[in-house]
Amino acid sequence: MQDKASPEEAARRHVLAALDAEAGLDREGTAWEDFGLRFDLHFPDLARLFHSLYRDREDWLDQLGALVVECARSWQDRPAELKALDARRLADPDWFQAGTMLGGVCYVDRYAGDLEGLRERFPSFEELGLTYLHLMPLFLAPEPNSDGGYAVSSYREVNPRLGTMEQLREVASELRERGISLVVDFIFNHTSNEHEWAQKAAAGDPEFSDYYWIFPDRTMPDAYEKTVREIFPEDHPGSFVQIPDGRWVWATFHTFQWDLNYSNPAVFRAMAREMLFLANQGVEILRMDAVAFIWKQLGTSCESLPQAHELLRAFNAVCRIAAPSLLFKSEAIVHPDEVVQYINPAECQLSYNPLEMALTWEALATRDARLLSQALERRHNLPPGTAWVNYVRSHDDIGWTFADEDAAEFGINGFDHRRFLNSFYVNRFPGSFARGVAFQDNPRTGDCRISGTTASLCGLEDGSPEAIRRILLVHSIAISTGGIPLIYLGDEVGQLNDYGYADEPGHEADSRWVHRPHYPAERYARRHDPETPEGQIYEGLRRLLSARAQTPEFEGNRLVGFHTNNAHVLGYQRLGDPDDDGGLVLVLANFSDAPQHVASATLSGLAGDAVDLLSERPVELADGLTLGPQEFVWLRTKYRG
Ligand code: GLC
Ligand code: GLC
To answer: Which residue puts its alpha carbon closest to atom 12 of ligand 1?
Structure first.
């Protein structure tokens, strides 16, 4: 009989037996009932995914059983405050679509010294209106170079320079009281070479050697390297590094970041444990680092393989069972067709929007908004229950990840265009206002990416008179296209590049540190002074944010394109609730340095009397509309009836 059961049913029986056999689980009360309900709902997915990923491993059922027992224990240990949060979120699953959502991101040490110092920043977070705070990786990591903390030596220890796990729990809880969700990275593609697992692997322990991709000689590495791309070629060529005993280990990023072997179910289970540990500290959103790379298969690019999605779904199912309010944000900085594949409620509910980010900079350089407009029209809308995280720039470089086939429709050659953009942003192109720095310039492939703060890339460092208008313009796009806008903290007061990075041990070879400056205290001190650039940027942004918060049309993602018939002017529509009276907000944004006109015929489908939500002034559309250089308007209007 048993043999005839479907794999899922067999798995269910096996797992229920494992749960039964587990002493130390409190089977009384509503907490256990809740667990049972969620188990019934989500275990079928987990079992199906586990079977699909791991059925060839003889221990797959035992691993699955042990995993679910760990879920039950983790749920049992989950603090009451977080169980209450779970209940709130389950009752309001669209909480993150609110027009008041605003993200900020910072490094604890650079922005505030340590976790204690971070508390002093809480009032300014509230002043800005943050509801989401991403603390850059703050776990134990190698010194002096840990790729900014992206090489984790223990997911359960805060870097002692920054504080303790107990302090992190307190920070999470205090932020929550202020309406701010704590976001940290789940760096699950790799560990540092100093992680206990890596050290055991390096010492030859076979159990832990199987946690990584380790090969005795170059045969397999050579075979894999035929088809994978190099991510940090300045660090090491290819994707493998040799360890002292002569074996080769997979290291996609730096030599000290060893890729985990997810074809081993023990690795999945071990990382699920670390994930649930973080969830129970009070982290509300996990930024899923480097999602594209987590599954490898010979003869492929080893990026965005179907199993990478299955793994994410399996991790997500684990959360739904044991930490149901936890959300995932995908970090896939890849081709736009691939980016969206990670975004759905069963996988990652949130995602960086690297295409909008890159094309905003593209439009700023070219003064031509057509590629951005096309991307918004075609590639912006997401499934219900998901949202973009729209950012102007992050702690990482800007990579030109637009689709070549999209660009080709305008007669633009992707390769040449990237070369132009790189030369523009490193200030090698005549007339450029940008002061960026090249990152991972790869002469062999012609690939290169750009580092720089928003202000330096917009011309503030260069003394360009349009710089402040450009800074507000690029943020206005991230703030009005729908989803969660995310500010790299310090950019809201126009922080500039920090060329001193080269003197910091461990940072000298990584130009991304140029745009990760220390807390710009003097700039913050001037943020309310309208005579200063800081004041103009900061108050300008606050005006955008408050107008957005009062505009229901900006909630959710729903965006409809709008052809302005002027290549310099970007247009899009944000629609209100159709059950209301069909109102809409038309966004128009001029990327040119000269005034630009949108013709009356182009606007003729709209009611003539609009209101600009930013200036709160009426705007007459009958004669068309002229926008000043870098000017943008948010027009509340209606279709002409
Ligand atoms: C992510 C991080 C990046 C890091 C890489 C390796 O992409 O954003 O900073 O270098 O992962 O962990
Ligand atoms: C590559 C990777 C991305 C990573 C970045 C770091 O673009 O695709 O995941 O964040 O490199 O520079």
So the answer is: 150
pLDDT tens-digit profile of 290-325?
Answer: 999 999 999 999 999 999 999 999 999 999 999 999
CA 495/CA 72 separation, integer angstroms? 46
pLDDT tens by residue, 60-76: 999 999 999 999 999 99
Average pLDDT over residues 443-463: 93
Domain range list for the chain = 190-259, 552-638
Q: What is the DSSP string of 596-613?
A: EEE-TTTTTTB-SEEEET
- CA–centroid distance, 90 to ligand 2, in Å, is 33
Residue with CA closest to ligand 2 atom 5:
396
Pocket residues: Cβ below 6 A from ligand 2: 231, 290, 333, 396-397, 399
* Domain 190-259 in this protein, CATH class: alpha beta
Q: What is the pLDDT of residues 346-379, one digit of tens each?
A: 999 999 999 999 999 999 999 999 999 999 999 9
Residue 218, amino acid: R
472 Cβ closer than 6 Å to some ligand 1 atom: no
Q: Single out the catalytic residue among 86, 185, 194, 331.
A: 331
Measured in Å, residue 458 CA sits from the centre of ligand 1 at 24
d(C-alpha 477, C-alpha 485), whole Å: 9
Distance CA 232, CA 166 (A): 35
pLDDT at 2 over 70: no
Which ligand places an atom closest to the C-alpha of 399? 2
Topology of domain 552-638 in CATH is Immunoglobulin-like (2.60.40)
